[in-house]
């Protein structure tokens, strides 16, 4: 895959370049800020652009740059990296686009396998969400009250993986159950949480799940 | 027979002082140093370990230990993140007062409503830090109402907390 990286932290950026090359990807460019990345992808299209959220132009260069890249090259996958897993940033990432966008913690993409998996999912148009953030969002309230508390253990696992942006097949693989069983669990979750939309359309499903979980966290 | 359920609402209001400008600047600088220095270095170390793993194919024992080390580094970063977020919420730097307070409340599991008179950026940051510090001591599932009011030459930050106890 053809990849470009923008991050003002040279140490991390150069390490990631080597890791990407070791994984067999072609690193088209490695630059320290958003403006240089936009110039780069304008002349030399890439499959996925990797951007640090906190880089020049300040204060949130990664997000602003990702928007520009999406406008310029809508088919380019966007992976936003940060030191912080914040719901607020996740929502801003999803405002940029709902296909082929990802938000992950920097240290969590430090392996060839996870990096490969993340890039493949982005190139396939999936939404990729930091698992620790998804986990925090689906946490059951104290005392197990409310609709999320009413989900079975298995349904709760499926909800968490949906919030990571995982597809049915990936969820089935992760939980060692059949794709049919996953579909059944998802239908049950959508009924119990009274979620709108068609659970078979990937990005709509992720958005419905996230909107629900976020409202639950904020409104109590 | 129905069990008798007892519940009561506990409401209290506290008035907070906005954090003084020197402390605001200091805290913002420290968070930035933490993010650009140690956090960046530790994340880069984790990438180094990932590379080491590539150079050691077919060695499950060493690869397992590398995985463990990466897990330990992730734990260090989680701790740095806690400290950084407490010093200066990252969303405050990028998106300002209200989104930052909602981000802090979300982490604490607190429901939050914010009403604010228009105030300048520095004042908003000072009020935000005071409320963020306070939210860290508020129990989960509390409803918190924040009011920022501009008086004559000063700014008041009133925080009303409501808990349903039962």
UniProtKB/TrEMBL annotation, chain A:
<keyword id="KW-0238">DNA-binding</keyword>
<dbReference type="InterPro" id="IPR000792">
    <property type="entry name" value="Tscrpt_reg_LuxR_C"/>
</dbReference>
<feature type="domain" description="Response regulatory">
    <location>
        <begin position="2"/>
        <end position="119"/>
    </location>
</feature>
<dbReference type="Pfam" id="PF00072">
    <property type="entry name" value="Response_reg"/>
</dbReference>
<protein>
    <submittedName>
        <fullName>LuxR family two component transcriptional regulator</fullName>
    </submittedName>
</protein>
<dbReference type="InterPro" id="IPR039420">
    <property type="entry name" value="WalR-like"/>
</dbReference>
<dbReference type="InterPro" id="IPR011006">
    <property type="entry name" value="CheY-like_superfamily"/>
</dbReference>
<feature type="modified residue" description="4-aspartylphosphate">
    <location>
        <position position="52"/>
    </location>
</feature>
<keyword id="KW-0805">Transcription regulation</keyword>
<dbReference type="GO" id="GO:0003677">
    <property type="term" value="F:DNA binding"/>
</dbReference>
<keyword id="KW-0804">Transcription</keyword>
<dbReference type="InterPro" id="IPR058245">
    <property type="entry name" value="NreC/VraR/RcsB-like_REC"/>
</dbReference>
<dbReference type="GO" id="GO:0006355">
    <property type="term" value="P:regulation of DNA-templated transcription"/>
</dbReference>
<feature type="domain" description="HTH luxR-type">
    <location>
        <begin position="144"/>
        <end position="215"/>
    </location>
</feature>
<dbReference type="InterPro" id="IPR016032">
    <property type="entry name" value="Sig_transdc_resp-reg_C-effctor"/>
</dbReference>
<dbReference type="InterPro" id="IPR001789">
    <property type="entry name" value="Sig_transdc_resp-reg_receiver"/>
</dbReference>
<dbReference type="Pfam" id="PF00196">
    <property type="entry name" value="GerE"/>
</dbReference>
<dbReference type="GO" id="GO:0000160">
    <property type="term" value="P:phosphorelay signal transduction system"/>
</dbReference>
<keyword id="KW-0597">Phosphoprotein</keyword>
UniProtKB/TrEMBL annotation, chain B:
<dbReference type="GO" id="GO:0016020">
    <property type="term" value="C:membrane"/>
</dbReference>
<dbReference type="Pfam" id="PF07730">
    <property type="entry name" value="HisKA_3"/>
</dbReference>
<feature type="domain" description="Signal transduction histidine kinase subgroup 3 dimerisation and phosphoacceptor">
    <location>
        <begin position="27"/>
        <end position="92"/>
    </location>
</feature>
<dbReference type="GO" id="GO:0000155">
    <property type="term" value="F:phosphorelay sensor kinase activity"/>
</dbReference>
<dbReference type="InterPro" id="IPR011712">
    <property type="entry name" value="Sig_transdc_His_kin_sub3_dim/P"/>
</dbReference>
<keyword id="KW-0418">Kinase</keyword>
<protein>
    <submittedName>
        <fullName>Histidine kinase</fullName>
    </submittedName>
</protein>
<dbReference type="GO" id="GO:0046983">
    <property type="term" value="F:protein dimerization activity"/>
</dbReference>
<keyword id="KW-0808">Transferase</keyword>
């Amino acid at each position: 895959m053809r990849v470009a990286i923008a991050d003002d932290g040279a140490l991390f950026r150069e390490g990631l370049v080597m890791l990407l090359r070791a994984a067999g990807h072609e690193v088209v460019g490695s630059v320290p800020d958003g403006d240089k990345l936009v110039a780069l992808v304008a002349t030399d299209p890439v499959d996925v652009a990797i951007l640090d959220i906190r880089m020049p132009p300040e204060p949130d260069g990664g997000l602003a740059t990702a928007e520009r890249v999406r406008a310029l090259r809508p088919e380019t996958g966007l992976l936003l990296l940060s030191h912080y897993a914040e719901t607020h940033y996740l929502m801003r990432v999803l405002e940029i686009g709902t296909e082929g966008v990802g938000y992950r913690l920097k240290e969590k993409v430090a392996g060839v396998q996870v990096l490969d998996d993340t890039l493949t999912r982005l190139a396939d148009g999936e939404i990729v969400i930091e698992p620790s953030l998804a986990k925090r969002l689906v946490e059951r309230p104290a005392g197990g009250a409310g609709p999320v508390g009413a989900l079975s253990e298995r349904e709760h696992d499926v909800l968490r993986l949906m919030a990571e942006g995982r597809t049915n097949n990936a969820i089935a693989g992760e939980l060692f159950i059949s794709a049919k069983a996953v579909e059944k669990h998802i239908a049950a979750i959508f009924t119990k949480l009274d979620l709108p939309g068609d659970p078979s359309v990937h990005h709509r499903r992720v958005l419905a799940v996230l909107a629900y979980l976020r409202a639950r966290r904020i409104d109590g | 027979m129905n069990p008798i359920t007892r519940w009561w609402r506990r409401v209290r209001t506290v008035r907070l002082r906005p954090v003084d400008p020197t402390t605001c600047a200091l805290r913002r600088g420290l968070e930035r140093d933490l993010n650009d220095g140690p956090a960046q270095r530790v994340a880069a170390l984790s990438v180094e370990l990932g590379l080491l793993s590539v150079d050691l194919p077919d060695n499950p024992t060493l690869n397992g230990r590398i995985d463990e080390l990466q897990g330990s580094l992730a734990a260090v970063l989680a701790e740095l993140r806690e400290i950084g977020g407490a010093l200066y919420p990252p969303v405050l730097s990028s998106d300002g007062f209200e989104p930052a307070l909602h981000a802090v409340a979300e982490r604490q599991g607190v429901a939050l409503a914010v009403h604010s008179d228009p105030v300048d950026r520095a004042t908003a940051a000072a009020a935000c830090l005071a409320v963020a510090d306070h939210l860290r001591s508020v129990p989960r599932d509390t409803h918190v109402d924040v009011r920022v009011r501009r008086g004559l030459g000063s700014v008041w930050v009133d925080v009303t907390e409501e808990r349903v106890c039962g």
